[in-house]
Amino acid sequence: MSGLSIKAASNALEMSGLDPLEIDLVIMCTSSPDDLFGDATKVQDALGCKNAVGFDITAACSGFLFGSVTAGQFLNNGGMKNAIVVGGDALSRWVDWEDRNSCILFGDGAGAVVLTKSEAGGQSGLLGYSMHSRGAGAGDLMCGYAGTANPIPSKDAPTTLSSGSYDYISMNGKKVYAFATREVPIVVNEALEAAELNVEDVDWLLLHQANIRIMETVSKRLGIPMEKVITNLKSYGNTSAGSIPLALDEAVRSGQVKKGDVIACAGFGAGLSWGSAIFRWGDN
Length: 284
Description:
A hairpin with a 3-residue loop joins strand 12 (about 260-270) and strand 13. The strands form four sheets. A five-stranded mixed β-sheet has the order 5-13-12-10-11, sandwiched between helices. The two termini are about 25 Å apart. It is α/β, with parallel strands linked by helices. The chain is built from seven helices and 13 strands. The chain has helices at about 1-15, 40-45, 65-75, 175-195, 210-220, 235, 245-255; strands spanning about 25-30, 55, 80-90, 110-115, 125-135, 140, 150, 160-165, 170, 205, 230, 260-270, 275-280. The chain is globular and about 70 Å long.
């Protein structure tokens, strides 16, 4: 995972034209790090961002969206100027390859953006957002702990701990579909209201690349035609926290997204968690 993330962040940094020493913050958004304690500092070190603080955010398929909003708060309120946000996952490690209902859905990938603090009165950047979580639905999409008993000798009484491992990803597809198609249109409208914009102002809708039927239903309920929906699902599958930045990267580099475009992003998934952020794209 760290290798994919370093490559994505390096490409984003090169595109930004910034020196690595100008980066103040590195946020790694992943639920499948190489190191249980996090991969952000590996990315920070590999890029030479010696002045940056790095930390991880675990929010599954909402991770990149949540991480981008978090970075925006640091840039707006915390005396930082430049941040790298990486979203990526390697879910092929955690699927049951004998379960064709789930294993064919997921892919491995990472994408990244460089966010820069806007000058006062600037027109680009994060315009508004809304985020939610509902732990009561956690069981609908999860990768639960599955440790095995590890008896430890003791003078007084036997002690049993556990040796760490995780189960395969489990998902109730019908419930996740119903959740996403119900909540995502609502949260996008909440974010648009926070940005003081309307659906008609949106140039591009960029959703977590989970399922084309979810994207079609959400776009229909929002009144946004599929021609305005950015998607690369058929190329990579569901890459969890990597899906939004991967699709954004391709859309920007191909010239699909242009300076000044308003992008409505939404992430949703395990937790359950979901959120939306409205961006106006600045310089590439």
